[in-house]
Amino acid sequence: MNEHAPQRFVRDPAIVTRSIGSETVLVPVRPNTAALNAIFALNETAALVWQALATPQSLAELIEHVCAEYDVEPRAAQDDLIPLLESMLAAAVIQEVA
């Protein structure tokens, strides 16, 4: 992922959020049962990012959002966000948009 690319990310509309105890999970609402293997658990930071992704967000916007919420430097936020976004893309819980 290139942090200088004008990529924007947004939630996949076929994913719903569920809270189980203190954990937030993403559950696909697709017609095939194989999708049940795609349940995606979120930690506190990932849940914050998921909330932000209700509308299209760039990496830079997500970095700002995380830095505003937590006492973290932009580079550290970026280093955490890139693998998170890559794993969310691979799990098809988010999409890239123009």
UniProtKB/TrEMBL annotation:
Q: Would you say which domain of life the source belongs to? A: Bacteria
Q: Tell me the protein's name.
A: PqqD family protein
Q: Which organism is it from?
A: Herpetosiphon geysericola
**Taxonomic lineage of this organism?**
Bacteria, Bacillati, Chloroflexota, Chloroflexia, Herpetosiphonales
